[in-house]
Design brief:
The protein has helices at residues 38-42, 47-56, 73-91, 98-107, 140-151, 165-179, 205-223, 226-235, 266-273, 301-309, 329-340; strands at 25-31, 59-63, 66-72, 128-129, 134-135, 154-158, 184-189, 238-242, 254-258, 281-286, 315-319. With 343 residues, the chain is an alpha/beta fold. A hairpin with a 4-residue loop joins strand 4 and strand 5.
């Protein structure tokens, strides 16, 4: 099954070599054992292979259960890593879509990889298993974050929207609740409006605060069947509440997540952190660039806490950037554009 090379109209090539450094060309063949996975690996009309070609500036030809890759030496090594990672993802039952391929390509550019396939044992794969899905990292920083989620007592997850800060924390919390590692899952965030006044909200207390907590509900329902979420909410195993409701409590045997933490004051953050109890884990998520605290002259409790506690034993700090955005690629470009003008 031979493929024609992509044309100049639909492929982005690497820039021409500079006079100081000649780009060495290389070729490599990869063989795959499970032919039943090749259709999903190649994609409809070989769309997945073309995506790797266009992003890395290589040529890929399919020959039976093997792929032949040609191009600049570094790009060929990266393409080999990406295609093997795509195959491995399919082999463990994971989906393979355009976003997942983009994430694997981004991870192949990490300096520690050096474009070389390491055949040494890598230990167990990094993943989070929930009732509805198995979640694997989609960027190198997500892998670091997922390790921190099972190692550190309190984790600060900082960075722009779309990097998976809250979603992965909720997934890890659900996994630990299911296995019995913790007895409760507590999700919280400050009830602060994003630069606009919503006015009086009708209803009881739950109905008033639910709109602020909707992103946490969305992540929760993505990791557990709806009937289980409702049952655990009713029993108190899962609690979703604004940060004001945390005062005076000790949160033991619990996985506690504070979202949008950049909108806490220093007093609120100190109060929240000191709720920490035995056999608990806390994850504090936020984007330091998106502070919506009313008044504008109050320091974010998140920034203050990171400044005071980073490096203290038991604390982990993960910093995501626009390169770690795993939503549509345009979201990453939006974040970069806004950060570039100092917002």
């Amino acid at each position: 099954m031979a493929r024609k090379p992509a044309t100049k109209d639909n492929r982005r090539f690497s820039p021409p070599p500079s006079p100081q450094r000649e780009i060495r060309r290389a070729q490599v063949d990869i063989n795959f054992d499970n032919q039943s996975l090749l259709g999903a690996l190649f994609g409809q009309f070989d769309a997945n292979l073309v995506q790797v070609e266009n992003r890395l500036g290589v040529f890929i030809a399919a020959r039976g259960n093997a792929l032949h890759i040609e191009g600049p030496e570094d790009s060929v090594a990266r393409a080999r890593d990406v295609l093997k990672a795509m195959y491995d993802r399919l082999a463990i039952g994971q989906d393979l879509d355009q976003g997942a391929i983009e994430a694997l390509i981004a991870m192949s550019d990490e300096p520690t990889l050096d474009g070389i396939v390491d055949d040494a044992p890598q230990g167990p794969p990094i993943m989070i298993r929930t009732r509805r899905k198995t979640i694997v990292p989609r960027s190198a920083m997500q892998a670091t974050y997922m390790r921190s989620l099972v190692r550190d007592d309190i984790i600060f997850a900082l960075g722009p929207a779309g990097t998976g800060k809250t979603y992965l924390a909720v997934a890890q919390a659900v996994a630990q609740l299911i296995t019995g590692s913790v007895q409760r899952l507590i999700l919280s965030r400050p009830a602060v409006e994003a630069g606009e006044k919503l006015g009086f909200l009708p209803g009881d207390m739950k109905e008033k605060v639910d709109p602020y907590l909707r992103p946490l509900y969305d992540a929760l329902y993505d990791c557990m069947p709806p009937e289980q979420v409702e049952r655990r909410l009713a029993s108190g195993e899962i609690e979703i509440a604004p940060i004001a409701f945390m005062r005076g409590r000790t949160l033991a045997d619990a996985f506690v997540i504070l979202d949008e933490a950049q909108n806490t004051t220093r007093e609120q953050m100190k109060m929240f952190l000191t709720r920490f109890g035995q056999n608990s884990r806390m994850v504090i998520c936020g984007d330091p660039r998106q502070v919506d605290i009313p008044g504008g002259d109050r320091m974010s409790g998140l920034a203050d806490a990171v400044e005071k506690l980073e490096g203290v034993e038991g604390f982990g700090t993960i910093r995501f950037t626009a390169a770690d955005v795993v939503r549509h690629p345009i979201v990453g470009r939006i974040v970069e554009a806004y950060e570039g003008v100092g917002n």
